[in-house]
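Hypothesis: this fold can be encoded by more than one sequence.
Test: take the C-alpha cells below, design a sequence, compare later.
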C-alpha cells in the first residue's frame, strides 16, 4: 500500500536527522569547526526537507477538507504530477468527489422527479416552519385551491384572510376532515389533514388539502347518466305489460267482429282492461314528463350570445306575470356589452327556473323584489346572479337542494335545481347558492 512507502521514507528521514544530530554532537565534542558547520547545514537541510515532506500531505488534506466544508465537490486534484504519495492522495480525493457528485446528482434527480409528481397532482400540499412560518415547500394546487398567489411565509395569508388562516393553519386536523371554506365568490368543500414533523431542532407542519367539490360534481354527473339508464329501463318495463294487455283486448275484439255469433264479448273484462291501460298510461305519462327534461340535456349547442339579448328575452317572457303578482323585477349588466358562449335555450331554462323559485320565495315578503345581475370578476369569470328578498332557504336543507327529487314544496318534483346544476356542469361552470332564512337568497351562475 502507498502509505507504507510514506512511512518508510518518513522513518528514513528521521534516522538521517538523528544521524545528523549525532554527527553534529561528535564534531562539537571533537572541536572540528569546519565539520561543525557542514554538520549543522546538513541537519538544517534534513529538518527542512522532512518538514516539507510532511507538510505536503497536510496541505493536500487541508485543501480537501476546505472543499468539503464549502461543499465544493467540483474541484479536481492533479493526479499526474508531484510526488508519488501525493498523487495517490489526490487520486483518493478525486474518487471521493466523483462519488459524492454522483450521489448528489441522483438525489437531485429524485427531488426533481418527486417535485414534478407533486406539482402534477390536484391535491394541495404545503410544508412550513411552525415557529417562523417560512414555507419550506408548496405546490401550485395549494394556492389554486385557496385562490391565493404564491407566498413565502404563511403570515401573508393571515394578513389577507384571517378566518381562512385560522381554519387552515391554526386548527389541527390529525384525521382527514371535510370542511367548508369561504373564498371570494363562493364556498367550497375541502378534505384537509395535517401532521407535524421534526428536522434537527426545527418543527415543521405538513398540510394536505383537496377540493372535493369537483370530485362530487364528477360523481354526480356519472350518477345522472346511470339514473337515466335506469329510468329508460323502467319505462320499457312499464310499456311491456300495457302492450301485452292491449294485444289481448285487440285479439278478443277481432274475434268478436269476425265471428259475432260464436264469440261473446265480456264487456266487464274489456272495461277492466281499458281502465288498467288508462291508469298505467296516465302514470307513465306523468313519469315521462318528469324525466323528459333530464334526458334532453346530453349535449350543447354553443353560440356567442350577448347577455343583454338573453336578459331581454327573459324579461319579455317573465315580467308581465311577475308584475301581476306585485313583485318588482330588474335586470342589470356590468359592463353592458358582456358576452358568453352558451346554449341559449338551456341557460334560459335555468334562469326561468331560478326566477320562478324566487317568485315563490317572495310571496310573503312585504316589498317583494327580484334582481338579475350579470357581471365579470377580476379573474375574467362571468357571473349571473338571481337575487330575491324572500323567505330564504332553511340551513337544514340548504345542502340538499341540488339532489335529484329532493323538494320542500308540496307540489314540486325535485328536479328543477338538479337540472340547473346539470346544465351548468355541461357548460363547465357551476351554480352557487347563498341564503339566509328570513332575508332572501342569491343563486350565482359562474361561467
Amino acid at each position: 500500500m502507498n502509505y507504507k512507502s510514506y512511512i518508510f521514507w518518513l522513518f528514513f528521514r528521521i534516522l538521517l536527522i538523528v544521524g545528523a544530530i549525532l554527527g553534529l554532537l561528535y564534531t562539537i565534542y571533537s572541536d572540528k569547526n569546519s565539520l561543525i558547520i557542514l554538520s549543522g547545514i546538513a541537519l538544517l537541510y534534513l529538518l527542512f526537507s522532512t518538514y516539507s515532506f510532511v507538510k505536503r500531505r497536510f496541505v493536500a488534506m487541508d485543501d480537501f477538507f476546505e472543499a468539503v466544508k464549502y461543499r465544493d465537490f467540483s474541484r479536481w486534484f492533479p493526479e499526474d504530477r508531484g510526488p508519488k504519495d501525493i498523487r495517490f492522495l489526490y487520486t483518493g480525493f478525486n474518487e471521493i468527489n466523483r462519488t459524492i457528485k454522483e450521489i448528489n446528482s441522483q438525489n437531485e434527480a429524485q427531488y426533481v422527479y418527486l417535485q414534478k409528481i407533486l406539482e402534477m397532482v390536484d391535491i394541495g400540499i404545503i410544508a412550513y416552519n411552525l415557529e417562523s412560518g417560512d414555507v419550506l415547500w408548496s405546490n401550485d394546487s395549494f394556492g389554486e385551491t385557496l385562490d391565493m398567489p404564491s407566498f413565502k411565509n404563511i403570515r401573508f395569508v393571515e394578513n389577507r384572510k384571517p378566518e381562512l388562516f385560522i381554519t387552515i393553519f391554526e386548527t389541527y386536523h390529525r384525521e382527514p376532515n371535510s370542511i367548508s371554506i369561504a373564498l371570494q365568490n363562493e364556498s367550497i368543500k375541502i378534505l384537509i389533514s395535517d401532521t407535524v414533523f421534526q428536522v434537527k431542532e426545527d418543527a415543521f407542519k405538513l398540510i394536505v388539502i383537496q377540493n372535493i367539490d369537483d370530485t362530487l360534481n364528477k360523481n354526480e354527473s356519472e350518477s345522472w347518466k346511470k339514473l337515466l339508464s335506469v329510468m329508460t329501463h323502467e319505462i320499457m318495463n312499464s310499456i311491456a305489460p300495457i302492450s301485452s294487455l292491449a294485444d289481448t283486448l285487440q285479439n278478443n275484439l277481432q274475434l268478436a267482429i269476425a265471428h259475432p255469433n260464436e264469440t261473446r264479448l265480456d264487456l266487464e273484462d274489456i272495461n277492466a282492461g281499458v281502465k288498467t291501460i288508462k291508469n298505467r298510461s296516465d302514470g307513465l305519462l306523468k313519469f315521462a314528463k318528469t324525466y323528459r327534461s333530464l334526458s334532453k340535456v346530453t349535449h350543447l349547442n354553443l353560440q356567442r350570445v350577448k347577455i343583454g339579448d338573453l336578459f331581454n328575452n327573459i324579461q319579455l317572457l317573465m315580467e308581465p306575470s311577475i308584475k301581476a303578482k306585485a313583485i318588482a323585477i330588474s335586470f342589470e349588466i356590468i359592463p353592458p356589452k358582456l358576452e358568453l358562449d352558451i346554449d341559449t335555450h338551456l341557460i334560459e331554462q335555468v334562469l326561468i327556473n331560478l326566477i320562478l323559485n324566487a317568485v315563490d320565495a317572495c310571496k310573503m315578503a312585504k316589498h317583494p323584489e327580484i334582481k338579475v345581475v350579470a357581471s365579470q370578476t377580476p379573474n375574467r369569470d362571468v357571473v349571473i346572479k338571481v337575487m330575491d328578498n324572500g323567505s330564504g332557504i332553511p340551513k337544514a336543507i340548504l345542502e340538499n337542494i341540488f339532489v335529484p327529487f329532493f323538494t320542500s314544496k308540496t307540489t314540486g318534483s325535485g328536479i328543477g335545481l338538479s337540472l340547473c346544476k346539470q346544465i351548468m356542469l355541461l357548460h363547465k361552470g357551476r351554480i352557487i347558492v347563498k341564503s339566509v332564512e328570513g332575508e332572501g337568497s342569491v343563486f350565482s351562475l359562474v361561467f
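The chain has three domains: 2-105, 215-296, 303-446. The radius of gyration is 44 Å.
Hypothesis status: open.
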